[in-house]
Amino acid sequence: MSFSPEIPREEYRRRWQRLMPLVLILAGGAVLVAIKLGQWQVQERRVLAARAEEMRYYEEIIPPRRGRIFDRSGHALAVNLPCFAVGATPRLITDPAGTADRLSLVLNMSRAELARRLTSDQAWVLLSRHVSVDTAERIRTMNLPGIQLDEESRRVYPGGSLAAHVVGFVTWDGVGYYGIEGEHDRVLRGVAGTVIGEWDPHRDMAIAGTARYFSPARDGSDFYLTIDRAVQSVVEEELERGLKEYGGTGGSIIVVEVRTGYILAMASRPTFDPNEFADRPPEQFVNPAISAHYEPGSVFKLVTMAAALDSGALRPEDSFYCAGELAIGGQILRPWDRKAHGLETMTEVLAHSCNVGAAYASTRVGAEAFYRYVFDFGFAQPTGIELQGEAKGKVLRPGEGDWYPINLGTNAFGQGLAVTPLQMIMAVATIANDGVRMKPQIVARVVHPDQQAVTTPVAVSRVIRPAAARDLTAMMVNAVEAETGLAQVPGYRVAGKTGTAQIPIAGEYDPRWTIASFVGFLPADDPQIVILVKIDRPTADQWGSRVAAPVFSRVARRLVVLLGIPPDDQR
Amino acid sequence: MTHQTETINPSPLVARWQWQQRLEAQGFKPLLALFALVCVMCLLYLYQTSNLATATYTIAHLEATRAQLLRRHEQLEAEAAQLESLERVYREASSRLGMVEATEVHYLLVANLPAEEPVVHAFAPGRPASAASGSADSETFSLADIWQIVVDQFLVWGGLPVRSEVGQAMPAR
């Protein structure tokens, strides 16, 4: 309506009267709209705002990359392989039969199984996991409605069963179990990131500038082990060969660097392929080298002699008359061969592996001092190695429940106590290291996203004097040269000791089986590596000198070449 | 027939009309300027929003590319690890290259070679307790170093300049 001064007043009034209802309707409508807007904006503001936010804002989890595991030279022992999980939303699938047909061609699943899942009444079903990137790309190009691809990662162990007991494995849910994977799962796994922001309707892309909260993912740390994969391979090969040659239900070989306490190799049988961990029974996920107790047998005489020499109770040349038995606490102890060895020096006691002589040595040291040495060598306590499931062993002390005076005698030659192979080799490494006990270490360095932690050798304590260690080394060399020729390595003087341990079963010893072992180091005058070989229940022969010693020799011959340890006459 | 018409007093209407005229003549310019300013600001806002949207898509695209490249990197890393596996190395070395495992090493004794510093710990005689753990970075002589010394010696005999490990030419002794 245009305003004009020429419009008559009556006409003007009449026009307004006609328009009045429309004005009232519009005004009423405006009032209603205003009331509703007021209701929305004021009364229900919080609820509606929250609902709107819920529709636009999402919390997206940013998965971290799991840290990798390498050997000391940087060769991969565990890496990640990107892959996809294929899922389906059945209600969005218009042609389940056709979709099943097409997917069965690439997913390696039966058409019937796929069709069953695709017609499920569940909101979402998983079709397949760990699908390769190439296969996922083929599925993506099919443009199948209702089929989703979610990125994930799979742990791959390029060496297969190489160092499987050390490395461990990761479950399909990304949880590390066993070995390094289990012990350092939290550090390897990293920390997931989060972004809360406005996303596009397909949830494909966060809209820039709308992020309300953002914390980036922190990738897991990479672990470099002290394990040398070449040494590990040699050790595993020789352990396998030894078990084939001499029979046996299992065994372990450990190689330790004397001066640092670094584990160069740790192999055990039976073993498994961590890539196929799901096919193995859970009881197999036990590392016998650190978790299995055994009675060490004569190898333990080294500890007894170390205690005797260091305490000054005996010298290598001190003699003892072996009459074929010795009474301790009212009970009689006899040598393993039931023979009277006659007059023998302590050096000969060790070479003959005379039980009676060892018991004599422990009684000369005295119970209190003897067990102090046993504990100082690291027995009956975890070594602290960074692997999951370490056992601490068992040694009874005077005054403890089942300890009797005869224990002092039997413990002297490795009976009536339980140790782990790792404890045993570290005790011998202590002798090789001039009497200083090193902490066994298997992680050389950890590379975090922003820094790295380098491991350095850790000396735990001095257990025996250097002079006592050198005397004992000479006695061990003599034992190898005089009685254990099969352990020798041409060109090198080897210090070592055999062990043939009985296996306790229900209050007595198993009459059929033994645990054959040999532990030694070389070169004797400048020890570089110490090797422990343990064969469980050998069938071809029961003695450590005939079963474990040859395996030791073969391992040592290959390792001196591999590690560049020059022969005695070329140093 | 006479028509008696009632006319509206034009004076207030004229006044309003005159006010509009004045407004148009004088006061409309600031309004126009204000309107233009608002328009410019709106355009700027639109421009910024448009740029932001474009940047968002660019970032999303780059992120997708990055994720794809990272995926590819991990895939190649896994493939490389498989190819580097000892089993394959041994197989290739023995079957394709005809290599055999070394069973013996001959060492060449070199006079005046600095002895390797042993790892000394706190419990060794004459060593302060603060040095309880040795350093992993301690200088050691590897086989490569020994080989370099041997090569250097031959170069000296041949009257050729010797190269140190940092690549600087050294005068022949």
One letter per element, helices H and strands E, the order of chain B comes to HHHEE
Number of helices of chain B: 3
- Percent helix range of chain B: 55-70%
Biggest beta sheet summary of chain A: 7 strands, mixed
Mean pLDDT of chain B: 74
Largest interface chains and counts: A-B, 55 and 47 residues
The quaternary structure here is heterodimer
The number of distinct β-strands of chain B equals 2
* CATH fold title of the largest domain in chain A: Beta-lactamase
What is the number of strand segments of chain A? 23
Shape of chain A: elongated
Number of helices of chain A: 18
Percent helix of chain A, as a range, is 25-40%
Strand order of the largest sheet of chain B: 1-2
Structural class of chain B: mainly alpha
Distance between the termini of chain A: 117 Å
Beta-strand percentage of chain A?
A: 15-25%
Radius of gyration of chain B: 46 Å
Describe the structure.
- Chain A has 18 helices and 23 strands.
- Chain A is α+β, with helices and mostly antiparallel strands and 571 residues long.
- In chain A, the strands form 7 sheets. In chain A, strands 2, 3, 4, 5, 10, 18 and 19 form a 7-stranded mixed sheet that branches. A 5-stranded antiparallel sheet of chain A has the order 12-11-23-22-21, with helices on both faces. A 3-stranded antiparallel sheet of chain A has the order 1-8-9.
- In chain A, a hairpin with a 2-residue loop joins strand 14 and strand 15.
- In chain A, helix 9 (229-246) runs antiparallel to helix 18 and helix 11 packs parallel to helix 13 (355-365).
- The longest helix of chain A is centred in the N-terminal third of the chain and has 35 residues, at 9-43.
- Helix content of chain B is 57%, strand content 2%.
- The radius of gyration of chain B is 46 Å and the shape is rod-shaped.
- Chain B is built from 3 helices and 2 strands.
- Chain B folds into 2 domains: 14-103; 105-117 and 141-173, no CATH class.
- The interface between A and B is large, with 55 and 47 residues.
